[in-house]
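Input record, target 12 of the design panel.
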């Protein structure tokens, strides 16, 4: 358990990190405040993230980790598009105070800005909260996992 001073220090660091992420993403962020707040993500998402990081789960797609940044961005754009993750998205920040940011994904190529703002693994949740794409760097490859909300 964290002491009160440790908790305040962690929150201060997370607020500073969030400001940096928001500044990097700039106009990609949705202005209407629809980001998921802590505790608002659907229950199935936590299970899907756990499933994606299981050693027993095979990725839906892979890309060699020595691919050029342009090739990585094209691959991410294709994964997002082919899985219906366009328009309004929620992007995982890895910050407890604000775990998801709402993004209005423009034309292909915006993922370079995302990669500069947020370290992998990158997690994209559709605006309808029914599809999750998890992309992480593993040994020698970037791996992509696609999860859909159970019916």
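The sequence produced for target 12 reads:
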């Amino acid at each position: 358990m964290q002491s009160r001073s440790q908790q305040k220090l962690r929150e201060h660091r997370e607020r500073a990190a969030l400001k940096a992420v928001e500044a990097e993403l700039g106009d990609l962020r949705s202005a209407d405040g629809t980001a998921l707040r802590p505790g608002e993500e659907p229950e199935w998402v936590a299970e899907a993230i756990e499933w994606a990081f299981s050693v027993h789960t095979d990725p839906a797609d892979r890309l060699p980790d020595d691919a050029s940044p342009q090739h990585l961005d094209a691959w991410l754009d294709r994964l997002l598009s082919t899985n219906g993750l366009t328009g309004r998205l929620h992007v995982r920040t890895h910050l407890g105070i604000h775990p998801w940011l709402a993004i209005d994904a423009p034309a292909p190529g915006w993922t370079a800005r995302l990669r500069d703002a947020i370290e992998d693994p990158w997690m994209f949740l559709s605006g309808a909260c029914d599809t999750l794409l998890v992309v992480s760097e593993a040994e020698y490859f970037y791996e992509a996992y696609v999860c859909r909300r159970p019916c």
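Helices lie at 4-25, 43-52, 69-82, 111-117.
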